[in-house]
Amino acid sequence: MRSSSSITFRSAGLALALLVFQVAASRASVDDAHSFALQSAEPYVKEGYQVREDYWGGDLGVGEKKAVRQQLFKGNDYWFWMGTEVEPAKVSVHVYDADGKLCEQQDSWQKGHFAAAHVVPKGTGSYFIIVAVESSPEERTHWALVYGFR
Amino acid sequence: MRPFVNTFLTCLLALLPAAAWAADPPRSIDVKHLSKNIEDVVVPLPNEIFGALNKLDSVNWKEFVRTNKGTNFTERPRIALLLGTVIADGFIAVQAEDAPSVKEIGQRVLSLARGIGVGNSIVPHAKAITEAADRRDWPAVRLELDRTQNSVQQAMNEVRDEKLSQLVSLGGWLRGTQVLTAVVNRHFSTEGAELLHQPDLLDYFQRKTSNMPEFNIPLLGQIRGALVEVKPLIDVDKPISAASVKRVNEITTRLDEGIITRK
Predict the structure, then answer these.
(1) How confident is the model over B127-144, as pLDDT tens digits?
(2) For B232-254, what is the mean pLDDT?
(3) In chain B, where the domains are located
(4) Which one, out of B14, B48, B55, B196, has a CA that is 20 to 30 A from the CA of A124?
(5) Between chains, do A92 and B22 touch, taking CB under 8 Å as contact?
(6) Nearest C-alpha of chain A: how many angstroms from B34?
(7) What domains does chain A contain, in order, with CATH numbers?
(8) Inter-chain CB pairs, A–B, below 8 Å
(9) Tens of pLDDT along B167-200?
């Protein structure tokens, strides 16, 4: 009886430790992705863009896409930067207006595990930012998206 | 804005072929197939709106600077609303390039954050605000104000006070909207009024405030009622009228008074 309790206790402890490790690992990866997204944004800060502290993040499978709706203001100039810590991965970010029309500028870019979309809104209102993992050696790829404006 | 997955709309764009997307993004998508859930929309910073406003017209920001210390509350939701408002005041003082006011506001933010138990998280930011204001480094002050709000909200989220965190955003948005409408009301332009076109943000705040039964304060009831009143004024397909701008200003001014004073 004593031995069985001890084993149960140890197993529960091990499971808890594993869970804590998994949560920490998951968080660390999104944090890493965030660092890469910020790295993409860095050169733009010198051009006067204020990069928001808040960011979006998560994980996606290859070919999977997600959307976030964001309020943008006419008169401002926005960049959305996406990054992942999975260096062989390829990610993309694109912006659509409330009618679903692609509305990003020509200088938007995609370079491997970094991507960025530039928007100069023609009107104030809601826009859709669509993020995707195009290819990746990982089953699920952590990513983060930050934005800046000036 | 809260980080991670819950900030996203949950839908996938199943109708868009992945291969085609990878090569070249579609010129258009069917937004009706996207979820209407905008629960985790990112609330813009006040200076995001002020910056757009500045490009339309020259604004005398000094007349909107406010540093009075206001009332000291003990109710945490009231402190959270006030905290958001005071951070917005910080952005206004930066627009006015008023260093003494910025420093005063930085200290007030710290004191309010302490009032809801998250002061420690913003001590370094308050210090950085003061130092940047002394250098008159306005981009740095703006960055620190954003960091302040973010740190306060993260600290609240960590102790499962997400609803208080939402009230901080709401307080800032209300104060920003009050100043936006005051400016546009004074020198009306269709372009200025268009900055009020924020229906999704309004939906977001309506949803959030209707899910706070534990905060039994009359002010929150007034805010809920006001959001209902504002919605048809700004959620329109035609240009927002001067009369609507004036009305939104009256409503937000009334709420602002409610937030900063004990009534």
Answers:
(1) 999 999 999 999 999 999
(2) 96
(3) 1-40, 41-260
(4) B14
(5) yes
(6) 8
(7) 2-149 (2.60.120.380)
(8) 150
(9) 999 999 999 999 999 999 999 999 999 999 999 8
Q: What is d(CA B20, CA B33) in angstroms, rounded to the nearest whole number?
A: 18
In 3D space, the residue among B40, B168, B48 whose CA is nearest the CA of residue B112 turns out to be B168
Distance CA B154, CA B138 (A): 24
Task: Say yes or no: ipTM exceeds 0.90.
Answer: no
Residue the block writes with tokens 């937030």 = B259
Per DSSP, the three-state class of B258 is: helix
B27 phi and psi, to 5 degrees? -70, -25
Q: For residue B72, what pLDDT band results from cuts at 50, 70 and 90?
A: confident
Distance CA A54, CA B147 (A): 9
3-state secondary structure of A71: strand
What is the bridge-based pairing of β-strands A65-72 and A50-51? Answer: unpaired
In the numeric block, which tokens belong to residue A116? 């960025």
- pTM of the entire structure? 0.86
Q: Are B3 and A52 in contact (CB < 8 Å)? A: no
Q: Which position has the token pair 């804005």?
A: B1
Are B86 and B105 spatial neighbours (Cβ–Cβ below 8 Å)? yes
Chain A residues touching residue B30 (CB < 8 angstroms): 100
Structure tokens belonging to residue B62: 């000094």
How far is CA B161 from each of CA B12, B98, B118, B193, B234, rounded to the nearest angstrom? 30, 33, 11, 34, 30
- Pick from B95, B94, B147: nearest CA to B124: B147
Tokens (6 digits) for B205: 């705040």
B143 → chain A, closest CA residue: A50
CB contact under 8 A, A67 and B9: yes
